[in-house]
Amino acid sequence: MGTDAAVLDAASESFAVWLAPRLADGRYFGLMAEGAGVIVGGVGLSLYDWPPGPLHPAGGSRALVSNVFVEPAYRGRGIASELMVRAEAELKQRGVAYATLIASEAGRPVYEKLAWKATNEMAKALR
């Protein structure tokens, strides 16, 4: 998405601190795609509690799909779509009824082909 390297560097230490307990207890996990013996793509998945509501009346856990990435040389081969299909299957296996993601312009067509829908969520930085 074109984020400045200095901004990414500043966030990496905080992210590592945030990530460690979630990896340990399974609230964060991911899937990787391999091609020619190297990792060419991946997706991160975060689980969190969510109260019951109209979109998932039984409540339970919700998932956030993040960091969907495919190396530029491997794009256009269906790798992102396959990662998403497998991510959805893993989430369903773990009992997740509802998932969200933040789509880049480049990623939006991939997600739309897999029946992901735009929602009315909004956001605001509070710091």
Characterise the protein shown here.
This protein is an alpha+beta fold. The protein is 33% helix and 28% strand. It contains three helices and four strands, in the order H-E-E-E-H-E-H. It has helices at 5-25, 79-93, 108-113, and strands at residues 28-35, 38-50, 60-70, 98-101. Helix 2 (79-93) links the parallel strand 3 and strand 4. The longest helix is centred in the first third of the chain and has 21 residues, at 5-25.
Helix amount, in percent? 25-40%
Just give the CATH class of the domain at 40-117.
Answer: Alpha Beta
The helix tally amounts to 3
Unreliable stretches (pLDDT < 50, length at least 5) are none
Major β-sheet profile: 4 strands, mixed
User: What is the CA-based Rg, rounded?
Assistant: 16 Å
Shape summary = globular
**What is the H-and-E element order?**
HEEEHEH
- SS elements, strand count: 4
Mean pLDDT: 91
Q: Would you identify the CATH architecture of the domain at 40-117?
A: 3-Layer(aba) Sandwich
Q: The CATH topology of the domain at 40-117, please?
A: Aminopeptidase
**Largest sheet: spatial strand order:** 1-2-3-4
Architecture blueprint of SSEs:
Layout: H1 5-25, E1 28-35, E2 38-50, E3 60-70, H2 79-93, E4 98-101, H3 108-113
Parallel strand pairs: 3-4
Antiparallel strand pairs: 1-2, 2-3
